[in-house]
Amino acid sequence: MKALVLVDIQNDFTPAAPGKPEGALAVPGGLEVIDIANRLMGEHDLVVATQDWHPADHGSFASRHAAKRIGDVVKLGGFDQVLWPDHCVQNTAGAEFCASLDRSGIHQIVRKGTDPGIDSYSGFFDNGRRKATGLADLLRDRGVTDVAVMGLATDYCVKFTALDAADLGFTTSLIVEGCRGVDLQPGDCDRAIEAMREAGVRIAAG
Ligand code: VGL
Ligand code: ZN
Q1: Domain coordinates in residue numbering, the chain
Q2: Counting atoms of ligand 1 from 1, which one is nearest the CA of 153?
Q3: Given this structure, which CATH class describes domain 2-54+87-204?
Q4: Is 98 a catalytic residue?
């Protein structure tokens, strides 16, 4: 059984388009992954979409930390945390999936980042691996053996989702043409892809 995991293809992670404002944390080229996602849905037995879903006071938001700026690093939940603009706040338009993503092809939605005290880049666990989102159980219950990962952002949520999938024993591939990244530091995306490859993730095209 093959699953497609679509990571965080949400309004806040994508640039402006006709009828759509620029997302709060827009990843360059982020809208370009949607056609690939829609096409690959039909080639998988199970399609799961992760959704970054933060409370308004989430600790990853620079706005919650006095005298800190976007891109600064603080400790959150005991871990280094990059600070982001407010994004994907629960029940806001920014947190919704992009309108052109084919919702009818998505079987399950897994929300993450709901605990204000810790971030959750992976679709499987929070960054401290304290709580599971339920994605692993969902995949196992459906008899999934192979997981293809794509979406946003290559160097954060895609990376940690793919690394966890491989670590959990799924035969994991990265659909590299279906990913776009932040590159806060030049080369972050390339390094993320290399880290996935080294962890046994197969790097596939589209
Ligand atoms: C993400 C930064 C903050 C992601 C989520 O989806 O990669 N990045 N929250
Ligand atoms: Zn987030």
Answers
A1: 2-54+87-204
A2: 7
A3: alpha beta
A4: no
Q: List the structure tokens of 147.
A: 């997981």
Residue nearest to atom 4 of ligand 1 (CA): 157
- The pLDDT confidence band at residue 206, using thresholds 50, 70 and 90, is confident
Q: What is the pLDDT, as a whole number, of residue 42?
A: 97
Provide the CA 78 distance to its chain's centre, in angstroms.
21
Task: Please tell me if the CB atom of residue 152 comes closer than 6 angstroms to any atom of ligand 1.
Answer: yes
Work out the average pLDDT over 94-111.
98
Instruction: Judge whether 157 counts as a catalytic residue.
Output: yes
Question: What's the chain's average pLDDT?
Answer: 98
Indicate if ligand 1 lies below 6 Å from the C-beta of 156.
yes
Ligand 1 mean position, distance from CA 118 (Å): 13
**Which neighbouring-strand residues pair with 175?**
204
pLDDT at 113: 98
CA distance 56 to 88: 9
- Among 51, 52, 54, 174, which is best to mutate for testing ligand 1, by the most ligand atoms less than 8 A from CB? 52
Q: Is 157 in the pocket of ligand 1 (CB under 6 A)?
A: yes
SS3 state at 197 = helix
- % of the chain beyond a pLDDT of 70: 100
Evaluate whether 150 touches 7 at the Cβ level (below 8 Å). yes
Contacts of 17 (CB under 8 A, 6+ apart): 31
